[in-house]
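Bench notes, afternoon.
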Amino acid sequence: MEIIIKELNNELSYQVRLDAINKIKDYDLNDEKYEDLKEIIIKLALSDRVFAVKQAAFLLCQKNKLKKNNEVINLGKKNTGYSPNDIRKMFLKIKRETKMEALDLDLFKECFQTLSPKMYDVMSYEHMYFDNWIRGIYKYLSK
């Protein structure tokens, strides 16, 4: 149980959170022994930045008829929580700190994951062609 809770709280890997949700999809979260899981699932359904995790947690809430403050939980719209300006600033920071003239993709990704692991996690999910997305944004950064 503690391992699943740890996996659900892992903010650095959406895949770990998603796998943990799938492990507990057959649990009856209304049972008192799953109270901790229930709270975490509700939190994920309401506020996870990766839509796939949010949606899986929402479906689990629906299946178990979970509520927050006696109100039904709604899925809400897809929102990563990062504006294009936030992403641009992070890319410029990485470029400045690594003193990178031409893009070194491996170094860039390593630095990105170190400086902003949550943003890296969300964007790696949001952009199917993550490497191409990085190249595209990097190409248009100011010199």
